[in-house]
């Protein structure tokens, strides 16, 4: 985008009281921001009222606008507008697409298939392990992991998204030059280098409580579906899930203990029709995608499992034990579940499980369950 074009977009966004809905009305009526600023006040007033028309007519360059231009001049910083062909189509199709998106990092990720992974800021250790494991597997299957850079489940999902060949997008509730919370500063730097950080808020915008629920619609809008890992009964993650459902996205939830407050939000979603998931494969099957290990390349070879379909691509002679541990994940599972996840026969699996048990890397639990220990 040329500097003067960016200046007009930033100046329009900076008009006090001129929200996204009013900006879209003006853009529909007059075209690009340059034409809006050249329009007569009476014509503007017919669209947004006299008060806003006067503010638009009196809009001038200020320090905030110059700060935005300075940010845009830095490497790997981008400004996406509703007029850009690179503006993510999935977000454009929602009811309230932001007129401007500040993007730091890999712009092309916003056009790729994505999954929102969200949950409690006070997630349990198991919940964070689940979020990271699901995100790692799903990102390596080709989905970009979208979350909100909050503590707890969000941060774990981003870390999982960055593992292996995967990547992630963080949608933040501050200006693109601010990181909140500060404890995630190093994670944010990794995301900016390998993924992308996205904000609709102007440069310099601090962490304001009302902005975080608002950014949830962008998280939901960028993704094909939304996976809630852990959430209390009153949680911002449920807002994201509701927005995803309203936008026609798939909603997934991981169940937990009936005694855990952090499971009640997920159970509520499942009662309302969210898909209960126990493995990453459940998500991919619903989205009609396939899991491939980081050592395998996608091809048209049928799965060893009868009937074809997706699964972990195993090479028993090449790190099969590590891949088997990945298939087990961090929760206990049955031999039948491993057959479904791996495509291997029960005899092959038992031959691989026994050495791992003797090495202390997994344990066999009552009821025929297997639990990964490391």
Automatic annotation (TrEMBL):
<dbReference type="GO" id="GO:0009294">
    <property type="term" value="P:DNA-mediated transformation"/>
</dbReference>
<dbReference type="Pfam" id="PF17782">
    <property type="entry name" value="WHD_DprA"/>
</dbReference>
<feature type="domain" description="Smf/DprA SLOG">
    <location>
        <begin position="79"/>
        <end position="287"/>
    </location>
</feature>
<dbReference type="Pfam" id="PF02481">
    <property type="entry name" value="DNA_processg_A"/>
</dbReference>
<protein>
    <submittedName>
        <fullName>Uncharacterized protein</fullName>
    </submittedName>
</protein>
<dbReference type="InterPro" id="IPR057666">
    <property type="entry name" value="DrpA_SLOG"/>
</dbReference>
<dbReference type="InterPro" id="IPR010994">
    <property type="entry name" value="RuvA_2-like"/>
</dbReference>
<dbReference type="InterPro" id="IPR003488">
    <property type="entry name" value="DprA"/>
</dbReference>
<dbReference type="InterPro" id="IPR041614">
    <property type="entry name" value="DprA_WH"/>
</dbReference>
<dbReference type="InterPro" id="IPR036388">
    <property type="entry name" value="WH-like_DNA-bd_sf"/>
</dbReference>
<feature type="domain" description="DprA winged helix">
    <location>
        <begin position="320"/>
        <end position="368"/>
    </location>
</feature>
<comment type="similarity">
    <text>Belongs to the DprA/Smf family.</text>
</comment>
């Amino acid at each position: 985008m040329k500097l003067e074009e960016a200046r007009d977009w930033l100046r329009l966004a900076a008009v006090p009281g001129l929200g996204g809905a009013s900006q879209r009305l003006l853009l529909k009526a007059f075209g690009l921001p340059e034409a809006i600023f050249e329009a007569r006040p009476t014509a503007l007033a017919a669209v947004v009222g006299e008060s806003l028309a006067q503010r638009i007519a009196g809009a001038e360059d200020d320090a905030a606008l110059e700060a935005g231009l300075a940010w845009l001049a830095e490497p790997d910083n981008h400004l996406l507008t509703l007029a850009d062909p690179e503006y993510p189509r999935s977000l454009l199709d929602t009811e309230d697409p932001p007129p401007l998106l500040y993007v730091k990092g890999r712009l092309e990720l916003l056009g790729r298939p994505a999954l929102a992974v969200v949950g409690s800021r006070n997630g349990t250790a198991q919940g964070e392990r689940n979020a990271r494991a699901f995100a790692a597997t799903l990102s390596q299957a080709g989905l970009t992991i979208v979350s909100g850079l909050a503590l707890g489940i969000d941060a774990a999902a981003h870390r999982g998204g960055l593992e292996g060949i995967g990547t992630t997008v963080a949608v933040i509730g501050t200006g693109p030059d601010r990181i909140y919370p500060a404890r995630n500063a190093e994670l944010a730097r990794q995301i900016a280098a390998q993924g992308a950080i996205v904000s609709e808020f102007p440069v310099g915008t601090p962490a304001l409580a009302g902005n975080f629920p608002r950014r949830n619609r962008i998280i939901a809008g960028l993704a094909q579906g939304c996976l809630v890992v852990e959430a209390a009964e009153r949680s911002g993650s449920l807002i994201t899930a509701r927005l995803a459902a309203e936008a026609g996205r798939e909603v997934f939830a991981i169940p937990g203990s009936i005694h855990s407050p952090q499971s009640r939000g997920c159970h509520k979603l499942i009662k309302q029709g969210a898909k209960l998931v126990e493995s990453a494969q459940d998500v991919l099957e619903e989205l009609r995608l396939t899991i491939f290990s980081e050592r395998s390349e996608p091809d048209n070879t049928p799965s060893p499992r009868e009937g074809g379909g997706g699964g972990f691509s195993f090479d028993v002679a090449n790190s099969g034990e590590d891949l088997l541990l990945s298939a087990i994940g961090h929760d206990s599972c049955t031999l039948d579940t491993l057959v479904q996840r791996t495509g291997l026969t029960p005899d092959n699996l038992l031959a691989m499980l026994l050495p791992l048990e003797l090495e202390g890397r997994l344990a066999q639990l009552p009821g025929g369950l297997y639990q990964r220990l490391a």
